[in-house]
Each structure stands twice: as C-alpha cells, then as structure tokens.
C-alpha cells in the first residue's frame, strides 16, 4: 500500500509541475512581451516628443533673439535640458527596471521550477522576491518623488514664461504619460504579485495535497500498524497457546520428573551398590592384568616345569618302555616256551549237498553253549565229548576263525596288537602275531587236518570271495612289512611243494615230477634245506595269488569214492621272510608254513586198492608221524621223531624251538562220517591233552631222536589238563612200566586216526 501511495504521490507531483509550467510560463512570457511592446511604444513616443521639442526650440530661438525674455527662455531651456537629462536618466532607470523585471520573471520561473523540489527553498525564494519587491517599491517611490519636483519646477517656469508654460505643459503631459507608464508598471507588478499569490495558492494547494498524501500515508501507516497489531496479537495468542501447551507439557514432564525422582530415590541405593560393585570391579580389572600376568608367568613357569617334567618322565618312560618291551619279548618267548606253543582247534563244517539226504546226512555234532572249547559227537547212539583249545561251529566265518586264532595267540602270550587289515579288525591278530614272529625270525606252522571233505582246503585257502588263512596271513605279512619298511629291508619268498607218497615235489618248479631231497645245511647250523626248491620273490598279495594258482594246477589230486576233490597229498606253502635291520645290520629269517594235509580217512573205508592203498598207507604214516611229533613237542619230550616222515622232517625247524604251531582239525558233522569224525577228534584231543611242562629244550639238542622216544613220554597222558607239572622233575625219565603202557595207548590212538 505504501508503495502504491508513493507512486500516486509522484504522479500527482508531476501533474502539478506540468500544470504549473503551462500556466506560469505562458503568463510570465505574455507579461514580458507586453512590457517590451510598451517600452517600445514609449520609446517612439519619446522620440516624437523630442522632435516636437526641437521644433519648439527653433521657433523659440527666432522670436526670442530680440525677446526680452530671451534670457529667461534660455534659462528655461537650460532647465528643460536639465529636465530632459533627468528624463533620460529616468528612462535609463526604466530600462534598468525593465531588465530587472525580466530578470525577476526569469528568476520567478526558476523559483517556480524549484518550488516542486522543496517548499523550504520556495519560501526562501519568496522571501528574496519579496525583498526585491520592496526594493523595487522603494525605487518606485523615489521615482515618484522626482516627478513632483519636476512639476514644481515646471509651475515656476509657467509663471515666468507662457511658452515655457506650454512647454512645461507638454512636459507635464509627458510626465503624466510617464506616470501612467509607471502606474502600468505598478499594475504589472501587481499582476506579478497576484501571480505570485496564485502560485503561493497553488503551493498551498500542493501543500494541502501533500498533507492529504501524508495523511493517507499516515492512514496507511496506521493500517499497517493495525495489521501489525493484529499480527502481534495473533503472535501473542499463538505464543500464549504455545505457552499454555508448554505449561501442560511441562506439568506432565514435572509429573514424570516426580515419578522419575521417586524411581531415582529407590534406584539410588541400588546405584550405590552398583557403584560400589563397579568400583570394586574396576579395582579388580585394574589389578587383573597384573594378576593375570603374574598368574600367566607362574602358570607358564609351572607349565614349562610340568612340560619339562613330562618330558623327562616321557624320556624315562620311553627308556623303561624299551626295556620292558625287550623284557616282554623275552618273557613272551619264555611263556610260549613254558606253556608250549602248539594249539589245537577244531572246526566243524556245515552240512553240504554232498552229504546227501536222509539219516546219513543228519547232524551228529553238537556244541556246548557255555564252553567254546567243548564238542559233543553222537556216535552209534553214544555221546562222546571232546575238549580242544577252541571249537568252531559250522556258522563260524573265516574271520571268526582268524579271531579265535588271535585269542589263542593271546592266551599263548602273543600281544602284537597292531591292526593292519582295516576292514577286518581283530580278526587276524593271532595270525598277525604269527606273522610278526615270522618277521622277527621265528618259524610258524599252520596245519589243516581231517578227513577228505571236512573243509581243510576251505579253511586254508578258502574261496575267492572268502579267502582262508593263507591269504589273510599273507596280507597281514605284507602290511606288517610295509609298516616296518622305515628301518627294515624285507625279502619275502614263497615256495609251494607237495608231499605225495613220501616224495617231496616242487609245485612251482619246471620239473614237477622231480623228487627233492631234504638236506642239512653244510654250514653246520643244523638248518635243513631243500636243494632245487623254487622260491618266488613276492611283493604283493596279487603275486601270492598268482603263485597259488600256478601251484594249484600242478597239484596232484585224485578222486576217491569219498570225495571227488579229495587230495591225497600234503600241500605246503612255505613263506620265508628275510629281514635286514639297516641300522644294526641284524639279519633275521622266519618261515611261515601253511599246510593243507592229505585226507586222514582210513584206508579200509575208502576202499582203496593197489596204488591207492599205498597212498593211503603213506598218508597214514606221515599223519601219524606228525601226530607223534606234535605230541612229543607239546609234551616237551627230549626226542621228537621228526625223521619218521618227509613232512615232519621238512618242517623240523618250523616245529621245534620257539616255533609256533597251529593244528586245525576239520570234521564233518554228517551222521555217515561220525566214525572218521571220531578218529579226527580223538587225534586232536590226544595231541592237545598232553600236559605242558617246563622241560628244558637243551635236552632236545643233546638227544638224538630214536624210535624209543616216541614211546617214552606217555606218563603224561594220565595227567589232567591244567594241572601243574611236578616240580624238580628235571629231565628225569619216568619209570619204564609207565612208559610202556602210555606208549601203547598213544600208539593205539594214533592208529585210529591214521
Ligand atoms: P578237504 O579239503 O578237507 O577235502 P574241502 O575244503 O574241499 O575239504 O571241503 C569240502 C566241501 O565242503 C567244499 O565244497 C567246501 O566248500 C565245503 N566246506 C568245507 N568247510 C566249510 C565251511 N566251514 N563252510 C562252508 N563250506 C565248507
Ligand atoms: Mg582238500
């Protein structure tokens, strides 16, 4: 609004100035022109007057030459010229005045122009103008007083001369005219004053307008103020509202505060305790690093000390362990030697298709539920019981057989517990013990004994899917050798031989029919060897399998009427393990003999004749010789009749000394085989029933085996198993009477089995 008002004000001021210039400018100009024209006219009149005056003077000069009044006239003329001079002066003054008026007019215009800029300036100008006006008036007044003087002089002149009077009259009229002129001038002045007044009026009007505008401005200002007031009020109201709201909020806050304060009051004790706790914790934390360091230091020291102790203890233990290991080995050997290292197991094969059907194929063998070493045989309506080291029922798997072999080994003192067959844990630990013995330089024999078809070959060789002792033992042998490869170099060789009709033949040689001889080593070590026996170096189970197959083809097998696949020869697999300890240079040689014996059935039963009979007789002889040897060994006899057969002679070094022997007696459970089964079991029991005594083996070395020795130790047959040997018996021989009766008994028993 103020802005619009200001704009209006400016517009109106411009309008005023325009009007003013229009009016004032034209008026002043008119006046000036008018005055100029008047002046011109007066000048011409004055010229005319001067001409007339000159004429008059000329007229006067002529009469006055002789006129008495000439002198007077001259005086008057002088006066006139003086008057004329004065008039001239007056005229000059008039011109001056004219100029002055013009200047004033100009100035007025100027003043009028300036008027719009500033009222104050205007007032000053006015003041100046009025002063000048006053000056002008004074001048005019002085001018007025001058004609009166002239009038006076003219009157005096009129008195003196008519002519002069006339001239005077003319001069008077002239004066009058001049006066008129002055009056006119005065009028002009008056007009000018009027103009001044009107401009003053305009000024007043303008002032009024300014006032009005100012009032308007004031009003606008008032409005603005009002609005501002309204706004102020609104603001105040808003402030008040906010204030009240804030108060309410404040109140709520206060209430909250009060609640919080009460809470705080209740919390303060808790806070105090917390602070206390915190402080104590802080103290603890502060002390903790020191404590920790201290503890750590002490712990470290303790630990290092403990480690040191453990280390030394370990060293000590290791030393002790090594000593103990050696001691244990010694003890083990001693124990084996003391307890005897010959075990006798029985294994009953399941009833097969070949057993036929009906009462003949009925099962005649039963087992003891509580004792796995007892077997009952129903023979001709009578139940006969046998006790062996262990009996395997038909359902026993190849692995179990191995496992039992292991337990037997443990019982015998073997404790090589290293497992090498991952999928068959604990199955062949005894076999492993045997294998380990082999690797350590001991000799091992495992026999399968029994009538044809009782499962000898099954137990020893097994089937491809379910291998027997041979393969499992060899697998362990290989893995064992691999395990010791860091320190030892081992060479494993395999020989396969068979004994047929007391003739030893090489199953791997080029001349299988060639009979081989067993000879004593020429180096005087007492060791036996077979010149010409082929040895294959094997490095894996695959090699072994190839050897088996090769040997199998060559093996002499004959059919009997008992079993188509019965074997009439002993099959031997001889594994020799030669070791060299790289660090000590110690050499060891161990032998593992795996023997699948020929069928043990009696000749009469198999109905053999001629060569078959001879075969059977040979077999019977060799088997009885084996029984005698095993018996003699187990009973610690001074003489062991190794030389009674090729088989025992060949295996002499593997049966004596620290060697281990396992006899697996195979039996058929079929009713029709009970008599053979009975024979086999009797053989087994007889071999086993010998009490083990601490007989020194040194005697064996001193005594040379004779036929008598076979019959000597029969005194022991009467002893029950498990009873201790009579102390202090030494190598003393039993009484001859006892001996003869025992020997007769054992001979009978041996004959029943073979
Ligand atoms: P041997 O070698 O004593 O003449 P074998 O080992 O040839 O007897 O066995 C005769 C038959 O009986 C074979 O067919 C064999 O598979 C089977 N046999 C033997 N023992 C077992 C057994 N424990 N489990 C299953 N079958 C067996
Ligand atoms: Mg066989």
From TrEMBL:
Protein name: Kinesin-like protein
Chain intervals with Basic residues compositional bias: 745-754
Keyword Kinase: no
Bias kind Basic and acidic residues: ranges: 708-717
Domain Kinesin motor residue range list: 341-690
Molecular function terms from GO: ATP binding; microtubule binding; microtubule motor activity
Swiss-Prot/TrEMBL keywords: ATP-binding, Coiled coil, Cytoplasm, Cytoskeleton, Microtubule, Motor protein, Nucleotide-binding
Family: Belongs to the TRAFAC class myosin-kinesin ATPase superfamily. Kinesin family.
One cellular-component annotation, GO: microtubule
Compositional bias of kind Polar residues: 735-744
Record region (Disordered): 704-754
Annotated positions binding ATP: 450-457
Coiled-coil regions listed in the entry: 2-146, 189-241
Cellular localization per UniProt: Cytoplasm, Cytoskeleton
Organism taxonomic ancestry: Eukaryota, Metazoa, Chordata, Craniata, Vertebrata
InterPro entries: Kinesin-like_fam, Kinesin_motor_CS, Kinesin_motor_dom, Kinesin_motor_dom_sf, P-loop_NTPase, Vik1/Cik1_MT-bd
Organism of provenance: Callaeas wilsoni
GO BP, one annotated term: microtubule-based movement
